[in-house]
Write a structure and sequence with these properties.
With 88 residues, this protein is mostly beta strands. The protein has one domain (2-86). The protein is built from no helices and 7 strands. It has strands at 2-8, 16-21, 25-32, 35-43, 49-58, 68-76, 79-86. A hairpin with a 2-residue loop joins strand 3 (25-32) and strand 4. The mean pLDDT is 95.
Length: 88
């Protein structure tokens, strides 16, 4: 069965791992109650799990020099955060 799960993200300058079912599809990111949150479509029948790496980068901050895929942007008052997933 497919469903949508949410994963809160920390506002830190380093990669953070999210354990999710293998094959999960990232749908969006947004602020929820002051916390940047990622939503993914997952297959709850999947027995395999994996850890995927994400980083939240503030506007004007350095972006790590590793392969990244842009996931989305969230705003929190005057702050703007950009979420990327590490590839490979």
């Amino acid at each position: 069965m497919k469903t949508i799960w949410k994963y809160p993200l920390a506002l830190v300058d380093h990669m953070q791992g999210m354990v999710m079912p293998a094959g999960a599809e990232v749908l969006s990111v947004a602020m929820q109650h002051g916390v940047p949150t990622l939503w993914a479509q997952v297959d709850t029948d999947t027995q395999s799990i994996c850890t995927r790496l994400f980083i939240v980068v503030g506007t004007g901050h350095a972006i790590p020099e590793v392969p990244l895929k842009f996931v989305g942007t969230v705003m929190d008052g005057p702050f703007v955060w950009h979420v990327f997933e590490a590839l490979g």
